[in-house]
């Protein structure tokens, strides 16, 4: 299993480390110039180094050769450093480079210099990334931004036997159906047509706003807090899982 290298200890990266540690995933390398932060997380990772990460020669020497995934979070107002580090990691042929960005414009630049994925989190976005909506109708939930979320939901009983076109799913629920699975634990398959038939027991992967997803499943913040059965989504485990 390869190493996850985390460059920069902004709020997002720190939360990622906490979540990985909770999953007993400690094959993690961390680098930042802030001694206090490094000492804070040293016991949660395999290796933690204090260094100026915008020095390419140092970074190339110290980042583990078996790194398969990299997280870049240089904190607020440090776009130039994020761009430099992203490009350095790209030159090191790291397969997957996930970078925290402060805005859409920066995101485009980061992709140009080598980022494979750019996230645009709010202050608590890292927590939301590993959060599962508490509902018996929701199996997985991922908030990508304040305006875009994805969730794996069940088919409403009243929709069974009808197609997406029949129920005008997108118009009625303001959600796009991206994929489906026939039951929990089965593989996802893409939904390629509005003629796709909805059947009780299917799980649908839908995309839209968090509010529209909650409206579809018939829940709200008050209802969420009242649900006693909590299921937690291991998004980080899925994100960094080695292909078997």
Automatic annotation (TrEMBL):
InterPro entries: NAD(P)-bd_dom_sf, RCK_C, RCK_C_sf, RCK_N, Trk_Ktr_HKT_K-transport
RCK C-terminal domain boundaries: 136-222
Pfam families the UniProt entry points to: TrkA_C, TrkA_N
UniProt-listed GO biological process terms: potassium ion transport
PROSITE patterns xrefs: RCK_C
Molecular-function annotations in GO: monoatomic cation transmembrane transporter activity
Entry protein name: TrkA-N domain protein
Source organism (scientific name): Treponema saccharophilum DSM 2985
């Amino acid at each position: 299993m390869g190493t996850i290298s985390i460059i920069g200890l902004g709020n997002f990266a720190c939360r990622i480390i906490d979540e990985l540690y909770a999953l007993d995933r400690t094959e993690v390398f961390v680098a930042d110039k802030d001694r206090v932060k490094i000492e804070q997380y040293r016991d949660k990772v395999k290796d933690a180094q204090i260094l100026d990460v915008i020095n390419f020669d140092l970074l190339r020497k110290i980042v583990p050769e078996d790194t398969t995934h990299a997280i870049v979070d240089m904190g607020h107002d440090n776009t130039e450093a994020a761009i430099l580090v992203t490009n350095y990691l790209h030159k090191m042929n790291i397969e997957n480079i996930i970078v925290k960005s402060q805005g859409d414009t920066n995101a485009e630049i980061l992709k140009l210099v080598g980022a494979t994925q750019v996230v645009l989190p709010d202050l608590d976005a890292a927590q939301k990334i590993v959060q599962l909506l508490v509902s018996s109708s929701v199996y997985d939930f991922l908030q990508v931004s304040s305006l875009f979320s994805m969730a794996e939901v069940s088919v409403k009983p009243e929709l069974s036997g009808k197609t997406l076109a029949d129920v005008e799913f997108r118009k009625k629920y303001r959600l796009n159906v991206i994929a489906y699975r026939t039951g929990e634990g089965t593989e996802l398959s893409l939904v390629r047509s509005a003629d796709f038939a909805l059947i009780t027991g299917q799980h649908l992967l839908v995309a839209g706003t968090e509010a529209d997803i909650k409206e579809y499943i018939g829940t709200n913040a008050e209802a969420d807090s009242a649900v006693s059965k909590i299921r937690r989504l291991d998004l980080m485990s899925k994100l960094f899982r080695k292909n078997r």
